[in-house]
Amino acid sequence: MSSPQTEAPTLLLRQEGGRLFVTFNRPERRNALNDVMLLELEQLITRLEEDASVRAVIFRGAGGHFCAGGDIRERRQQTTASRPGVDIAMERNIRAGRMFLRLANLPQTTVCVVEGYALGGGFGFACTFDICLVMHDVQIGMAETRIGVAPAQIAPQVVRRVGLSNARYLGLTGRRLNGEEAVRLGVAHDVACSAEELDQKLARLLDDIDACGPQACAATKAIMNRVGEIPLDALIEYAGRRFGELNRGPEGIEGQQAFLEKRKPRWPSLTG
User: Fold this and answer.
1) DSSP strand pairing (11-16 vs 6-7)
2) Domain count, the chain
3) Which residues of the chain carry a pLDDT beneath 50?
4) Phi/psi zone of residue 189: left (φ > 0), alpha (ψ -120 to 50 degrees), beta?
5) What is the per-residue DSSP string for 111-149?
6) For residue 140, what are the β-bridge partners?
7) Hey, which family's this protein in (predicted)?
8) CA 99: distance to chain centroid?
9) Long-range interactions of 240-249: CB distance < 8 A, separation 24+
10) Which among 23, 30, 84, 215 is least buried, having the fewest CB atoms inside 10 angstroms?
11) Residue 46 to residue 241: CA distance in whole angstroms
12) Phi first, then psi: what are they for 157, rounded to 5°?
């Protein structure tokens, strides 16, 4: 049964079973990231890090745009308000970087559906979530260098997504990609030409996610996120431990039994 929709100042949340739909809700500013939204996201991440009832998180933007990046008006005010020894904009930038890292490491499968603009921080979101669907006419990219700053906190996520060469190409030109280009460079995974097609592709994607074991997906993300972060020998040991835990646990037992019986698995973590 669907839960009632709750509204936060900058986020709209709606949970349907194991799916949590999150909508960036500053349409008057093309959903630009400000301090209030950052706080709301931090609070949401804290919840999701411990919430086993949610297995997929789907992010969209209100008003026809995903997220136009950081709120430059607010940043200018923070710069003006800064004083010697206290750089408010810099501190906010570091907070945002930590938020992106926590998003990347969530145990849930995260999906973004991108329409309209996804620039700067919005592009960072698109490169941070596990799976990205885009409309064909989106405008997405790293716009920071065109306004004289660096894409400081999204750059690591972009490099992880598209590789160093493509990240340099995007960051050092500030050019915007459409949907087909985003898929070709590896930013997005699928593109749609209409709102109806986009919704259909999202529905099929969520069905595919539901077919997979939630704990198996969480472990897969955790293993992949450690590639390049820890020595290979240590990663082999870590991955082997996670495999063993799953293989002898209720999810592994059910999944393999369902395969042998030629039926769909009934994931214990979802059925209690």
Assistant:
1) antiparallel
2) 2
3) 1-7, 272
4) alpha
5) EEEE-SEEETHHHHHHHHSSEEEEETT-EEE--GGGGT-
6) 118, 177
7) Belongs to the enoyl-CoA hydratase/isomerase family.
8) 11
9) 243/219, 245/219, 246/213, 246/215, 246/216, 246/219, 249/215
10) 84
11) 26
12) -70, -35
DSSP characters over 36-62: HHHHHHHHHHHHHTT-TT--EEEEEEG
* % of the chain surpassing 70 pLDDT: 96
pLDDT at 2: 42
CA torsion sign, 166 to 167 to 168 to 171?
Answer: positive
Whether 63 and 198 map to the same domain: the answer is: yes
Q: Give SS3 for 243.
A: helix
In a domain, 1, yes or no: no
Neighbours of 96 (CB within 10 A): 21
pLDDT for 146 equals 95
Whole domain around residue 223: which residue ranges? 214-271
H helix or E strand, kind and range, residue 6: strand 6-7
CA distance 66 to 61: 4
Residue 60 pLDDT? 98
Provide the CATH number for the domain around residue 139.
3.90.226.10
The C-alpha atoms of residue 86 and residue 165 are separated, in whole angstroms, by 35
pTM of the model: 0.93
Q: CB-based contacts of 120: which residues, under 8 Å, 6+ apart?
A: 68, 69, 70, 142, 143, 144, 151, 154
Question: Which of 89, 61, 244 minimizes the C-alpha distance to 152?
Answer: 89
Place of tokens 């999202």: 202
Query: Whose structure tokens read 């042998």?
Result: 260
Structure tokens at 272: 């209690």
Domain with residue 257: its CATH number is 1.10.12.10
- Which residue carries 């646990």 as its tokens? 249
